Amino acid sequence: MKHALVGSVLFVFFLTAPGVAQLEITGTVSANATPGALPDGVGNAAVVVPLSGVRVQVVGGPQAVTAADGTYVLTVPDAMPRTIEVELVGPFAQVLTAQGAAVRGAQVVMAPATADFLLNAAPDEYSTAQVNVFCHVTMAHDFFRSRAPLFGGLDFPVVSTANIALSCGATFNSGDLSLGFFHAASGCVNTGYSSVVLHEYGHVIVNRFGLAQGAFGEGYADALSLLALDDPVVGRDFLGPGISIRQPGIDAVQYPCAGSVFFCGQVLAGAWYRISENLQTSLGDAAGLEHARQLFVDWSQITLGGQGSDAAHPDTVIEVLTVDDDDGDLSNGTPHFTEICAAFAAHGIPCPEPPGLLLTHDPLVRGLESELVVTGAVPGTLVAIVAGTRGVGAGRCYPQLGGLCLGFLGNPRLVGSGTADANGELRLTLRVPASAPLIEVVLQAANRVGPGGADSMVSEVVVSTVGE
Ligand SMILES: [Zn+2]
């Protein structure tokens, strides 16, 4: 053992000994791309952005991939002149062009050196479209993958062709998972831009989960775009200024749906946009948007897809509530039950009944503490837990609870009370006296809500026997 240890130390020493120089070539790759959600053109000129996820290669030598800020580091053994090349190729995207020159860059440097690239320094329709497609395919991949750390099904370069000589469309090829984008013609813009690229990539994700496309595929693809851009519209100004393809987050297409797959997809996309809007209202813009994006990615991994022309349907609500749930029990609600259900309701999809007031507790044992939990209360309102020992039956009624009656006989004894937290929950700890009689106890929770208690709720009664 000792000899082996000495040997390995020497080995490390020689590997790092002076004489084996490691020189760095560093730099940033940037390109002109279309900003925001509008297409390329008058009033929305391309701007220089860092290019992430692009491969930088020493011809005949090592390669690196740019980081989110467009930077890269290459290491070479000596100061010989070397050619450094960049093309629109990376681990998750590859862009070809049907027209115009392929966007690329090359320069010769001697390490140590800085080699910055500005790829399409004089942008035109064809070069900007190629860069846009590369940026947004990479963005779509990262959107999903960064929130699904265990899902490797998207880790391959999706090949896209920009500037195809057709008009007013874009394509997804289910055979090889390639994408296609058309040049500007027939009154339509070049379709290689933000929301259209994100939409087409959405079909790749649906395919990777083995789900049928149809209305679900169109809705899923739109939803990915709406959430990634935080924009209710798909294909802004596609047919010229002010004429967009669809606005699923503004129109409220209703379930059940009849119509084209593109029309009916909007039920799903609109519901997701509204989930995001509602969460942004309750959690704040940044936190709400991020929560919606994570829910969407979580749901993507469990959904069974659409049902015919219904991209979303009552089972979709259950799926979304399932990924929102934090205790494996939908019957007591989920942390964002209200926001999710309101979003689906806006599209005519019903939610399960709201859970209402629910009381649960640990067994009651002489001399021990028991935790009592009330859920489903209105946040910030008064909750009381009362008990009786004379059995279940029509009990006393209270004007301050809007006339509601208790479900047990005799005079109620107050076990405890408090204010429901932001999740509508109250937890109380009760110590059962060591001398408590071993009898049956009926427990019930009441929640005082509304002016004069007019909207109050009581839970079902819970019957327990004190044990020892
Ligand atoms: Zn589509």
Explain what you see.
- The chain is α+β, with helices and mostly antiparallel strands and 468 residues long.
- It folds into 3 domains: 23-187, Immunoglobulin-like (Sandwich), CATH 2.60.40; 209-355, Neutral Protease Domain 2 (Neutral Protease, domain 2), CATH 1.10.390.10; 358-465, S-adenosyl-L-methionine-dependent methyltransferases, CATH 2.20.130.
- Helix content is 27%, strand content 24%.
- It contains 8 helices and 21 strands.
- The protein has helices spanning 2-15, 125-145, 194-208, 214-229, 261-283, 285-300, 314-324, 337-345, and strands spanning 23-33, 47-50, 55-58, 63-65, 71-76, 81-87, 93-97, 104-110, 113-114, 117-118, 158-164, 170-173, 178-182, 358-361, 369-375, 382-388, 413-419, 426-431, 440-448, 457-458, 462-465.
- Strands 1, 2, 5, 9 and 10 form a 5-stranded mixed sheet that branches. Strands 16, 17, 19, 20 and 21 form a 5-stranded antiparallel sheet that branches. The chain has a 4-stranded antiparallel sheet with strand order 4-3-6-8, with no helix packed on it.
- A hairpin with an 8-residue loop joins strand 19 and strand 20.
- Helix 3 crosses helix 4 (214-229), helix 4 (214-229) runs parallel beside helix 5 and helix 7 packs antiparallel against helix 8 (337-345).
- The longest helix is centred in the middle third of the chain and has 23 residues, at 261-283.
- It is elongated and about 95 Å long.
- The two termini are 60 Å apart.
- 43% of the residues are buried.
- Mean pLDDT is 93; it is low at 1-17.
- The structure holds zinc ion.
- Residues 199, 203, 218, 221 line the site of zinc ion (ZN).
- Zinc ion (ZN) is lined by residues 199, 203, 218, 221.
